């Protein structure tokens, strides 16, 4: 599909925001008599579809083949194509050489934060600094706006049950649960486990005793799948928390430990004190 170069770049940004992988192919040197001039771009998606052009014909077919290979290898690539019909060429009569740079953009990881209280406002900037696309969900319309949480990528005002009924996170995504007053924490966790949503990290805040009861209820429900055994609660590493900011750091540290494959992780045990999430 031939579209203007600027529109290809817009599609690339939109695809990044959606958290989908793609390959961007750019003609960095184009032969004078070929349709593919320097700067032409093509974006290739993992399902085989594409937008833009590098000039069409045999060159474009070969570029698409390289894009498919990079979707598997997750690498960048630089290729030269001899646009001739001799033994060294690709079977074209244009003449000259086309040079194409291929950039692979991996699936972006998202963090879904349930609850837009004080802890959310401390955690979101940290997650953004770690390249998470952050989405905040709260059932209180007055709490979910970008003026309160300017570093969130998205803020969503929704009934929690309704949101989760349509919720489709990716396997590399994170879910953090700390609703106001912990009124909806267990319900959200229960629905996520009921659906056996597959994510990289699932954490819920709460005191040691409350978490114990919540996990007991989830276990007794007998949900299928391995998600139940991957719940991090109480949430966060044990760093002797004192403030909302410290809890946010403890949560981010635990999330990083999971993404980095750390085996021995000590959870944060909340014993007494005020839980600063309202």
Which features would summarize this protein structure in a list?
7 helices, alpha/beta, 5-stranded antiparallel β-sheet, 11 strands, Rossmann fold, 278 residues
How would you characterize the overall build of this protein?
The chain has 278 residues and is an alpha/beta fold. The protein has two domains: 5-105, no CATH class; 110-259, NAD(P)-binding Rossmann-like Domain (Rossmann fold, 3-Layer(aba) Sandwich), CATH 3.40.50. Helices cover 32% and strands 20% of the residues. The chain has seven helices and eleven strands. The chain has helices at residues 5-18, 57-73, 118-129, 160-165, 185-195, 208-221, 244-259, and strands at residues 22-29, 41-45, 50-52, 77-82, 97-105, 110-114, 133-138, 154-157, 174-177, 201-204, 231-232. The strands form two sheets. The chain has a six-stranded parallel sheet, sandwiched between helices. A five-stranded antiparallel sheet has the order 3-2-1-5-4, with helices on both faces. Strand 6, helix 3 and strand 7 form a beta-alpha-beta unit. The longest helix is centred in the N-terminal third of the chain and has 17 residues, at 57-73. The protein is elongated. It starts with a helix and ends in a 19-residue tail after the last helix.
């Amino acid at each position: 599909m031939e579209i203007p170069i600027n529109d290809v770049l817009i599609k690339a940004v939109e695809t990044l925001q959606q958290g989908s992988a793609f390959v961007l192919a750019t003609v960095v040197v184009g032969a004078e008599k070929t349709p593919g001039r320097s700067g032409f771009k093509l974006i290739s998606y993992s399902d085989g579809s594409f937008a833009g052009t590098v000039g069409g014909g045999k060159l474009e077919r070969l570029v698409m083949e390289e894009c498919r290979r990079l979707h598997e290898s997750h690498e960048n690539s630089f290729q030269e194509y001899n646009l001739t019909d001799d033994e060294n060429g690709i079977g074209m009569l244009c003449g000259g050489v086309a040079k194409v740079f291929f950039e692979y953009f991996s699936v972006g990881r998202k963090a879904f934060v349930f609850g837009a209280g004080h802890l959310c406002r401390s955690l979101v900037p940290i997650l953004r600094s770690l390249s998470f696309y952050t989405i905040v969900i709260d059932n209180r319309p007055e709490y979910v706006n970008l003026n309160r949480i300017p570093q969130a990528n998205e803020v969503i005002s929704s009934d929690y049950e309704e949101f989760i009924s349509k919720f489709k996170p990716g396997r590399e995504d994170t879910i953090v649960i700390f609703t106001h007053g912990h009124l909806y924490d267990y319900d959200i966790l229960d629905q996520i486990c009921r659906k056996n949503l597959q994510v990289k990290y699932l954490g819920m805040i709460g005191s040691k005793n409350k978490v114990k009861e919540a996990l007991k209820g989830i276990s007794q429900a007998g949900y299928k799948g391995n998600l139940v055994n991957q719940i991090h609660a109480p949430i966060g590493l044990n760093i002797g928390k004192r403030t909302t900011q410290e809890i946010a750091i403890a949560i981010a540290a635990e999330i990083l430990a999971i993404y980095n494959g750390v085996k021995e992780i000590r959870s944060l045990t909340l014993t007494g004190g005020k839980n600063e999430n309202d």
